[in-house]
Design a protein that fits this description.
With 276 residues, chain A is α/β, with parallel strands linked by helices. Chain A is built from eleven helices and eleven strands. Chain A is 34% helix and 29% strand. In chain A, helix 5 runs parallel beside helix 6. The radius of gyration of chain A is 22 Å and the shape is elongated. In chain B, helix 1 crosses helix 10, helix 5 runs parallel beside helix 6 and helix 7 runs parallel beside helix 8. The longest helix of chain B is centred in the middle third of the chain and has 19 residues. Classes of the chains: A alpha/beta (276), B alpha/beta (288).
Chain lengths: 276, 288
């Protein structure tokens, strides 16, 4: 079973909650916030094995290319352009879609592997369970492709926790897609609530069951009201406390620093796990 | 000369929007841009007074299959790199994953796939107390967030020219990937909001590497400081190593999230107003 931990707003506490759940449930932990992965600071994994992740991008054989410009004309992402008698590729714009290879009248285009990041696998010295980290090359625009590269290979024997990226764009969708259950982390402020509503739209469209948890909470009245309008009950609340912040600054997994704080969430998740 | 400043952090929740909103209210005439198009919170703090324009954002066309002509040969499914063509009964459908590359339309022997216009979000222009706000809402889960950011930044530049405004202030998205890059290209200065935490430091290092690729100078506001001396020291060292300059420090203080929950900014908290004024002064000084 796969549980994705997401939040529309950044800094709501996805990593705090995902690492804690991985600890409580003895689950594998996948860090799919690939352009800002931070779970390893808390889970302290050891014995890394590494693999490169790639996307396919066009390679133009200059001997066969007649510089007709057809590929550049047809590319909808404007990733190919012709200057003089040479066709160039802008790697940042390429979506690896295959079209240029199809349209090329001389068969000059093949696909080559271009690295987009590294996938590291280790074992947490804190929980003993597996830790997988997606680490996007800095400056790469292919974060979603790296997430998909990892999720398509993901086999969950027991329980797996995915720590997703913030936001409500394609990267979040890619991290939600393999999930059997989604934990939505909400900072109960006007900002967190605004961003959560978009996340809920995505989850509804994808038909994903969810558990909502408030984090860094000073009060939850407004959040509970908004959730009720959506037919959702707030499953658990974690307060805004400087002790928690201090524990995180020391690199502790919050559920190890204070087991009690996760009781509500643990029960809510357990109920959902049992249903499946 | 028009100047552009992007407020970035790497880590989400570091305080980008809180700092941007305070600066946007303080600066005399500014066009504010919310570059976090799928979690846009700047309007909540800037409280625009009047909506001037609202428009659909069209980016990529998407594929549409005329099922009456489709022979279910499966060529489209084979070529699609995004897994967006799904078999349904004895015909094919296009799923939300379509990125609009048109490869399916090209290979279809029946020529029964066409590319159709598709709105993937909305753009807004509104009037604030002392300037304008340009923001957008990407349709939840949609692609093309980077293009939407580029589009509203272009709108902001046109507006600046038209109204003779000299400063554009961009509230950036978290992370260091496509949306961040789209918010950074062509700016003159970056203001980094760095949260005193392990994740804040780790993400700052990634962001600083990105900024050096683009050869962009940066100032730093440290946020939520005063909890852990060792982390604080590591952060100050990292900022020095990466050529940043610390322009202000904001402590971990419950009164700040409380004020933000009331939709107030740092300017409404008398003890922090001078910090924001100091940051603003240094920014303008660096822009010359």
């Amino acid at each position: 079973m796969i549980i994705s931990v997401v939040s529309g707003k950044g800094g709501a506490g996805k990593t705090t909650i995902a690492t804690s759940l991985a600890n409580i449930l003895q689950a594998d932990y996948y860090d799919l916030d690939v352009d800002a992965p931070n779970g390893e600071h808390f889970l302290q994994p050891r014995d890394w094995t590494r693999r490169q992740a790639f996307v396919l991008q066009p390679k133009i054989d200059s001997a066969t290319c007649i510089a007709c410009g057809k590929c550049a004309k047809e590319c909808r992402f404007k990733a190919l352009y012709k200057i003089g008698e040479t066709v160039y590729l802008n790697e940042h714009l390429c979506h690896s879609c295959n079209l240029c290879r199809e349209v090329c009248p001389t068969g000059a285009i093949s696909y080559k592997e271009v690295p987009i990041g590294e996938v590291r696998t280790g074992h947490s010295s804190r929980t003993g369970a597996k830790v997988v980290v997606g680490d996007l090359i800095i400056g790469s625009t292919r974060g979603t492709a790296l997430i998909q590269d990892i999720t398509t290979r993901l086999r969950s024997d027991g329980l797996t926790i995915i720590d997703g990226p913030p936001g409500n764009s394609c990267a979040a969708v890619a991290a939600i897609k393999p999930a059997d259950l989604v934990v939505v982390v909400v900072e109960p402020t006007p900002f967190g609530i605004h961003d959560m509503l978009q996340t809920l739209t995505i989850l509804r469209d994808m038909g994903k069951p969810l558990v909502a948890v408030a984090n860094k909470a000073l009060e939850t009245e407004e959040l509970e009201k908004v959730l009720a309008e959506q037919g959702i009950e707030l499953a658990a609340t974690i307060g805004l406390k400087s002790e928690y912040h201090k524990a995180l600054l020391r690199g502790e997994v919050l559920s190890q620093a204070d087991a009690g704080v996760f009781q509500g969430l643990q029960q809510a998740v357990a109920r959902e796990v049992e249903k499946r | 000369m028009m100047k552009q400043i992007a407020v970035m952090s790497g880590k989400g929740g570091a305080g980008k929007t809180s700092v941007t909103a305070a600066l946007a209210k303080l600066l005399p005439a500014v066009i504010a841009v919310d570059g976090d198009v799928n979690a846009s919170n700047l309007p909540i703090l800037l409280k625009p007074q009047q909506m001037l324009r609202e428009s659909d954002f069209f980016s990529m066309d998407i594929a549409q299959i005329d099922t009456s002509q489709c022979t279910a040969c499966g060529e489209c499914e084979k070529i699609c790199a995004f897994g967006a063509i799904e078999k349904e009964g004895d015909t094919y459908n296009v799923a939300d994953d379509c990125e609009g590359c048109a490869a399916c339309a090209w290979v279809c022997p029946q020529k029964c796939i066409k590319m159709v216009e598709h709105s993937c979000g909305k753009k807004y222009l509104s009037l604030t107390e002392n300037g304008y706000l340009v923001h957008a809402d990407l349709n939840p889960g949609a692609d093309n967030s980077g293009k939407l950011i580029a589009s509203i930044r272009e709108d902001a530049r046109k507006l600046a020219k038209e109204k003779n405004y000299r400063l554009i202030l961009i509230d950036g998205p978290p992370g260091t990937s496509c949306q961040a890059i789209s918010s950074l290209t062509g700016v003159d200065l970056v203001l980094v909001v760095l949260e005193e935490s392990l994740s804040g430091l780790s993400d700052y290092r990634r962001l600083a590497t990105l900024l050096s690729h683009f050869r962009l100078p940066h100032l730093v506001v440290l946020n939520k400081v005063g909890i852990d001396e060792q982390v604080a020291k590591n952060i100050e060292d990292a900022v020095a190593e990466n050529g940043g300059e610390i322009a202000g420090r904001i402590p971990f203080d419950y009164s700040i999230p409380q004020a933000l929950s009331r939709c107030e900014t740092f300017l409404d908290l008398p003890e922090y107003r001078p910090t924001i004024e100091g940051v603003s002064g240094q920014m303008l000084g660096m822009l010359g």
